[in-house]
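Reminder: ligand-aware prediction takes two inputs, not one.
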Amino acid sequence: MTAGIRNGYRIAGNAPLDARNTFGVRAIAPTLVEVTDTAALPELFGSLVPSAASTLVLGGGSNLLFAGDAPGVVLALQARCIRIIEDGARAIVRADAGVVWHEFVLWTLEHDLTGLENLALIPGTVGAAPIQNIGAYGVEVRECIHAVEAFDRASGRFVRLAADACAFAYRDSLFKRDPDRYVVTAVEFALSRRFEPRLGYAGIEDELRAMGVGTPRASQVAEAVIRIRRRKLPDPAVLGNAGSFFKNPVVSERVAAELHAAHPGMPLFRGADGSSCKLSAAWLIDQCGWKGHREGDAGVAPAHALVLVNYGGATGPQLLDLARRIAASVRARFGLGLEPEPRIVGAAW
Ligand code: EPU
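Here is what comes back for the chain with EPU:
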C-alpha cells in the first residue's frame, strides 16, 4: 500500500476494505482517500478524481455489499465534530458526516435533546443517515433533519439543502438516487427539549413495562429500543451483516387486500396516505422457509429473516447469489419483487 499525507486528506493505494464493511467481505479500493478536512473536497475532485469517475463514499460500511472491488476512488470522511448552532425549545445541532450514528444519538440524549431516541443503535455514520433516510421503531430520520450539507460534484461547490429539498421517502433520498453527485459532509438536526414519546411501534411499550418504566424519559425509550435490537438483530461486530437486506415492499391497498385474503396471517402496515400499504419482507422470506438457512458461511439470521449474515468466510458474490434466490422464491410464491436495501457495489441487482 502506498500512502501520502496532504492538506486535509490521506491517500492509500490498493487498500483492503474488509474491516470497513460490516458484512466483513473481502474487497479492495484501488484508491482510498481519508478526508480529515472536507475543505479539501474541491481540490480532490478538481485534480485527483476525474469528473466522470464513480466514487464511493464510505461511512460505517453498514449499508453496502461488495460484490466486487470498489470503483476507482473510495472516500472516507473522518471529521467528527458536533455542535449546537441554535438553542431553545427547538435546537439545531450540526454533526459532521464522520460522527458514528449511535454515539451521536447518545450525545443528543446527554444534552437533553430529543427526537432521535427511537433510532438508537443503528449502525453507520451521521453522513449516511440522510442518504437512505434511516428509520426504526416508527420514526424516520427525515422527521428530525433540518438541512443537509454536501459537496456537489456537478457544480464543484458546497451546498446546503433544506430537508424538503432532499426528496426523502422510505429508505430513499435525492442522495441515494444520484450517488455520484453529492458527498454529504454534515447534517443539521432540529431536536426538541420537550420530549414527545413515540411508542406506537409494536414491542416498545412491552419493553418499557418489562424495564419497570411507567412514564419514560427519552433515554429510557432509547434503552428499550437498544434491548429490542440486541435481541432481534445480530451485532455486526460479532456476525457480519448489513441490517435489513431488503426493503419492505410498498403496494396499493387493492394488491394488499388481495394478498391478505389469500394469506390471512400476513402483516400489513397502512400508509398515512391511505392508498398504499407496506408489507413485511421478513414475513414473506420467513414463509418461504429461509430463516436460519445457512450454506457454507453465507446465511439468513436465525432471529430475523430480513438479515443476511456472513459466518466468517462468505464472499460478496455468494451473499448476492443467496439474496437473488431469496427474492426469486418470494416472487414465485407471492408475485412480489423484493429490492435490496444496501447499495450493491460491483454488480447489478
Ligand atoms: N417477522 C417475521 N419473521 C421474522 C422477522 C419479522 O415474520 O423473521 C415479522 C414480524 O412478526 C413483524 C414484521 O415482520 O410483524 C416486522 O418485523 P420488524 O418489526 O422486525 O420490522 P421489519 O419491517 O422487518 C423494519 C426495518 C428495520 C427496523 C425495524 C424496526 C426495513 C427494511 N427494516 O424491519 O431496519 O429496525 O423495522 O423498526 O424497513 C434496517 O433498515 O437495516 C433495519 C434493521
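Residues 136-137, 201, 232-233, 243-244, 247-248, 267, 280, 282-283, 286, 291, 304-306, 341 surround EPU (CB under 6 Å). Residues 82-192 form a domain with the Uridine Diphospho-n-acetylenolpyruvylglucosamine Reductase; domain 3 fold (CATH 3.30.465.10). We will return to this case in the review session.
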